[in-house]
Fold this sequence. Notes:
By secondary structure, this protein is α/β, with parallel strands linked by helices.
Amino acid sequence: RELIRGFLLSSMPCPSSCPPGLLALMAPGLALMATFSLPSQAGDRRALPVEKPPGVKGRTLILLDVNTKSPVRIISENFLSLQLDPSIIHDGWLDFLRTAAVSVLARLNPLNLCPEGRKSHLLFFCHQKGLAISLFSFPFAVDIVRSDIALDKQKGCKIAQHPDIMLELQREKAAQMHLVLLKEQFSNTYSNLTLTARSLDKLYNFADCSGLHLIFALNALRRNPNNSWNSSNALSLLKYSASKKYNISWELGNEPNNYRTLIGRSVNGSQLGKDYTQLRSLLQLIRTYSRAHLYGPNIGRPRKNVIAFLEGFMKVAGGTVDAVTWQHYYIDGRVAKVTDFLKTRLLDTLSDQIRKIQKVVNTYTPGKKIWLEGVGTTSAGGMNNLSDSYAAGFLWLNTLGLLASQGIDVVVRHSFLDHGHNHLVDQNFNPLPDYWLSLLYKRLIGPKVLAIHVAGLQRKPRPGRVIRDKLRIYAHCTSYHNHNYVRGSITLYIINLHRSRKKIKLAGTLRDKIVHQYLLQPYGKDGLHSKSVQLNGQPLAMVDDGTLPELKPRPLRAGRTLVIPPLTMSFYVVKNVNALACRYR
């Protein structure tokens, strides 16, 4: 008999009435992950009785209970957020953000939207037509703060209409640009991009009409002879945005630990900290942004040299930023295989990174919020029929659970719509498997994370070997925004990486409750490589350009054992639990 530790996770809820907008993918939630270790702190530690119920084989049954008294974590309402790549300016997709399909797919509120990437360092801002003032990056995160669907009428936002021939030409242009971007990425040489004031207006209009809050990352690559940051162009951009009364939060740079490969000289953590202090001073000089939020330093994977960089930054600017940010990509998209996404060792690599980041942050600024601002299953743009397939969802869902369980406030997914194959929506505006996963997560998951208790017979490890659990269970208070469920309900979601089905018996406070099942499986003959999914046996697809399908649950009778099919992801709403932790916000 072994207990499985409960980890938390969070996700962002979105009511069915969410306003059209591009990237509304955040939902607050509570989550727990099952691994083979005894919980050391979270939740009630009472062991469940593991006597086998009559007629049930012990090795096939798992008993599951949830601590409903209090949450172990409470994460941001905007926990699940998205990125856009700056290449949308170059490849033409910027003009298609306000199409009907993209607008309706944005009904994932609340969330953060962060356009950023390597090309974000190489953008020139043009205030006057034909005049490139300077370059800056624009990773920006967008928080959805409104849910009224009448935004288009109130603000004059219009849905763009594009003939089919224009869309076809745009796809051809984007395909050609994708090859150029891949060549730049593999050679590590990048050309500049020019962002005009009109393009910035379009980006902000899209965010504002979608009910999103914009987080914009200024370029940190412009350097003075003494290697300090040249802020002249940033000041021009700030003044322009302020003159338009744009409500924006700010960042400075993207993966600053890699600047040597881009500009031929490095910037250390303490120097970037001084640059952030300089940016904060600029913001305070402009009334519109005197209280604006500032995030950073958005470092890469926390290896030894990157940790040293972060320490230098935190010593100087730890108190300047509102949240500390970093990025993580699991595997190289050029060499990934579908079996990689089923390896529990890969799923667990993020946990060590979280501990490293938290150790540094808590040393210098205890309690400071931490964001994973840039996460994808694969790097190098991803791989077709792999990083955009059903199989990639195992990594994505586990990432959400692991981050929330360890107290990471926001996670920003790369990306919503751009080149490559890590996106949620393809260039035909068709939702991919991770989109449907994110949509369910947002609609069903609230910001409070609950501790779980799991008991059952498991095989014992051989000497010297560690068994990594292939059945991962998360629990949240059900989203307060979902009016189909009363407050006090609990949502479980489960990843089954086993090649056999697993049976779970709800016990304790969950016993004999009606359950709604949302089972996601691949649709079609491609199996785990499929880009389509089915919900409870029904394929998911847009009804038309402006209509998402209804996500219908399958009701399970009270007391029924949950049967989890092999290699699947599923959500279960346990109704009317009247959980004390979930009754109030």
